[in-house]
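TA notes, week 10

Several of you asked for a full example with nothing omitted. So below is the full record: C-alpha cells for the whole chain, then the designed sequence directly under it. When grading your own attempts, check the secondary structure regions first.
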C-alpha cells in the first residue's frame, strides 16, 4: 500500500483507455476509452506523454487522497492493446487486479455503462489482446455503450459503425457518459469497484 493511501481505497492503480491512435480515429465510437482517459488526465492534472517503452501515452500522479494512479492510452492500435498494458504492468510491478480497462461496447446502448470485476472479451479485439497478454480475465473493466451496428452479423457494417463518428445528439449524450464514467471511476478508487457498480451500472444517461 502506498504511503498516504486510505485503507478503504480500491486496489486499482492503472486506468487504461482503449482506442486507435491518430487524428483519423479521434472522436470515433471505438475511441471512447481514449476520451475517458483524456478527461481523467485533465481532471486530475496528470499530463500524458508518449512513452516508447510502453508503446503508448502514459501519465502518473497522485490523487488528493494520496493514492498513486497511472493513466495509459495504448498507441499499438486496438488489436495489440495488450502489448502496451503488459509493458506498464511489468515496469511498475503491478498486480493484474490493479488494472481497469475502459472500452466501447456495441452490446450496450448509448447512455449506458457497465463496471465489472472480470469477464470475457465479448468479441472486442482490444480486450482479447489485453486478456491474452495479461494471461487472465480477472481484471476490472468498464464497458461504455456505443449502440449496435444497423446490420447485425455484417462485418463491414460493424467496422463502419465502430470507426464512425457519433451524431451531434449522440455526442452530447456521450459527453455526459464520459463525465459519468469519470465519477464512477473516482467512486471505485475511493470506495471500491463493487460500490461504484451498485451506483452506476443501472444509470441511463440522456434518457
Amino acid at each position: 500500500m502506498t504511503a498516504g493511501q486510505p485503507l478503504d481505497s480500491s486496489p486499482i492503480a492503472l486506468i487504461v483507455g482503449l482506442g486507435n491512435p491518430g487524428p483519423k480515429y479521434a472522436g470515433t465510437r471505438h475511441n471512447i476509452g481514449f476520451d475517458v482517459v483524456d478527461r481523467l488526465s485533465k481532471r486530475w492534472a496528470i499530463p500524458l506523454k508518449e512513452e516508447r517503452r510502453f508503446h503508448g501515452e502514459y501519465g502518473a500522479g497522485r490523487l488528493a487522497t494520496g493514492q498513486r494512479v497511472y493513466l495509459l492510452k495504448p498507441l499499438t492500435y486496438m488489436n495489440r492493446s495488450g502489448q502496451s498494458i503488459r509493458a506498464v504492468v511489468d515496469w511498475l510491478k503491478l498486480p493484474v487486479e490493479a488494472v481497469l480497462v475502459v472500452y466501447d461496447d456495441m452490446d450496450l446502448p448509448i447512455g449506458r455503462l457497465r463496471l465489472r470485476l472480470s469477464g470475457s472479451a465479448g468479441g472486442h479485439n482490444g480486450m482479447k489482446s489485453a486478456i491474452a497478454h495479461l494471461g487472465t480475465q480477472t481484471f476490472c473493466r468498464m464497458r461504455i455503450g456505443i449502440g449496435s451496428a444497423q446490420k447485425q452479423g455484417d462485418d463491414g457494417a460493424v467496422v463502419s459503425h465502430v470507426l464512425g463518428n457519433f451524431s451531434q445528439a449522440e455526442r452530447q449524450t456521450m459527453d455526459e457518459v464520459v463525465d459519468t464514467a469519470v465519477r464512477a471511476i473516482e467512486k471505485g478508487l475511493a470506495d471500491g469497484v463493487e460500490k461504484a457498480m451498485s451506483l452506476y451500472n443501472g444509470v441511463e444517461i440522456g434518457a
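The first strand starts at residue 14 and ends at 17. Use that as a sanity check on your answer.
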